[in-house]
Amino acid sequence: MGERVVVLGSLNMDIVVSAARKPEVGETVLGESVRYVPGGKGANQAIGLKQLDADKKMLGVIGDDIFGEKIMQQLHQLTIDRQHIKQVNGTATGIATIIHTPKDNSIIVVPGANTACTTAYVDEVEAVIASADVLLMQFEIPLETVKYALQLAKKNNVTTIVNPAPAQELTEDLLRYIDYITPNQSELAVLLDNANEDLETIFKQWNRKHTTELIVTLGEKGCAYWDGENVIKIAAKQLGEVRDTTGAGDAFNAGLAYGISKRWTIRQSVLLANTVSGLAVTKFGAQAGMPTKQDVNRFWINKL
Ligand code: RIB
User: Fold this and answer.
1) Closest among 165, 216, 178 to 195, alpha carbons compared
2) What's the CA-to-centroid distance between 249 and ligand 1, angstroms?
């Protein structure tokens, strides 16, 4: 049974400004704190998998600055294999500026070294991708690289999952290499030309056009998928007081990739994904919030 998950994606330093609320346009508000914590959708998802004890590898690119060093230290502390992470000279590591309020967050990413995650880099790490069972990617690295890695994965029978964040318009010549796609509602609106329809219509039209399995995350409402006949909505799990929603989507994707790598059904995988993200939002920090296998097992009947 295949279980190796490879995450190809971004590594960022998150500059998190916490405030009681976001400023309105043109307004200044006083914040409560500013914290520097490693993030990036790719790294967050790899750490989410690591905390679940999955067999995983992280691929991506950092700069040769202090933020790159801090990120490498964090990966080392978490015993994540850093062997294939590339450091490029004279380039700044990716940065995310995050406004964090008790209810939600807004993020601006400056990709920096993540743009050096090129097709040439994919060639360098080809063997790692080819030997995976699941390849998990997001859109904080160049789309051209995502497509190239997807093609390589499919050539080697690797199952592919794409978390299309930040949103990008996609065409069938890329979608045909994606087995599972996991947009939230705003990302879905960018993917579709019928985003105002109800979910049932959206799923029916999607399935007519594409072979990719669509799994839509619905924030505090949970998520939805198609079981072949109907839309199935799975409610979000409230597993404690919500402290930080940053990385909730990353936690979901880590849980989903874990289930898919174990060849679980979509339903089982999505239930786990909901549990992982439900726990992640109860702690501060996209990476620090990723629940461990033991945390999940408190809410998971069959135990991981
Ligand atoms: O999904 C959350 C992540 O988005 C943050 O860690 C930030 O780096 C941005 O990539």
Assistant:
1) 216
2) 9
Return the CATH architecture of domain 5-9+40-60+115-297: 3-Layer(aba) Sandwich (3.40)
DSSP code for 235: P
Is the beta carbon of 140 within 6 A of some atom in ligand 1? yes
13 CA closest ligand 1 atom index: 8
Q: How far is the C-alpha of 215 from the C-alpha of 193, rounded, in Å?
A: 17
Q: Assign residue 59 a region (left: φ > 0; alpha: ψ between -120 and 50; beta: otherwise).
A: beta
**Residue whose structure tokens are 């849980």:** 255
Residues known to be catalytic: 250
Model confidence over 56-75: pLDDT tens digits?
Answer: 999 999 999 999 999 999 99
120-150 confidence digits (pLDDT tens)? 999 999 999 999 999 999 999 999 999 999 9
Task: Fill in the amino acid letter for 65.
Answer: D
Cα distance between the two ends of the chain: 15
Residue 184 per-residue DSSP state: B
Q: What was the pLDDT predicted at 195?
A: 74
Helices 248-261 and 266-280, interaxial angle, to 10°?
150
Q: According to the model, what pLDDT value does residue 196 have?
A: 79
- Distance CA(250)–CA(283), nearest Å, equals 14
- b/e string for 98-126 if b means 16 or more Cβ within 10 A? bbbbeebbebebebbbbbbbbeebbeebe
Q: What is the pTM of this model?
A: 0.96
